[in-house]
Amino acid sequence: MAEVIFKQLRKTYSNGFEAVHGIDLKIEDGEFMVIVGPSGCAKSTTLRMLAGLESISGGEIRIGDRVVNPLPPKDRGIAMVFQNYALYPHMTVRENLAFGLKLSRLPKAEIERQVSDAARMLELEDLLDRLPRQLSGGQAQRVAVGRAIVKKPDVFLFDEPLSNLDAKLRASMRVRISDLHRQLRQSGRPATSVYVTHDQTEAMTMGDRICVMKLGHIMQVDTPDKLYRYPRNMFVAGFIGAPEMNIRPTELVHENGTLGLRVGGSVFTLPAAVAAKVAAHGAQDVHYGIRPEFVSVSIAKPNGESAQGRLLRVENMGHEFYLYISVDDGEIISRMSAEHASDVVVNGLGQTVYFQFESRQCHVFDTSTQENISL
Asked: Which CATH architecture has domain 245-366?
């Protein structure tokens, strides 16, 4: 078993600054857990405490059935892949892969076998005799991953390993690392992985589950789908998703036995089930939230509930458009397919347009607690 458990884990620096505030987290055996959050949220600090590279101020870390708080990194059963690759510049790829195994005094034949297996898995066979300076960024990062694989650790740790790569290589390496994790898990090898990133695309595409952090606190831990569809608070709602969720202050409107949200001078009625939850909570000062794909825009006033705005800006993504609509209380983003947006875009910026909400996809947040009270 290679599950990882944080129990009331804390980190306080000598100047009194508390970076990690007593977090609890359980990472299942064989799970790929992504820790994501903005710069300064203490995600890398948390990973470094797990690795033994940062001291722990309080709480407990368990790997499998062992409390590892007092253990040095080499005795924790972990292997870490860093942002800057951390390859030995004077060693070939083969020697970099074999270095840790030589320190463990494995037989030469076993070292060669494990290096060959890792090289084959990561398509490094043709690069084994090259030095790090002769490698591209993507190749160097594959070597760094290979060096972790040959150690056969209980837990793999990744500290923003793709941030130095260009967009195309990042996408390629995301697939490689995800496939590698799946291969290891299917082969019965320990494959518990903890991956730290600030890139929500990496988090959403790679993680079995995602832990969202803010200022040393855990905001939510869930699957990518549930984080996206059911954010527990305004921070998660705004952080996960691109373009980000529309989140604006609003007024609750009670009319004819229904509950609605006032947006741009118009009222959008909430579904009965959502309205009941919001009413039961009793909050009066609220924000609404709706993802851009659930906002549709048209030139002519449509049937049903709609509001009026002005087309402020258009981003052409090829297969879809992001439409930025100026309304009385701010700005709303709509995400529409190129086919459906073409009639709006053709008339240019500054025109008057109408937008509608898919109201069953609307979230309502208590402004004071930032809690999602519509779940």
From this structure: Beta Barrel (2.40)
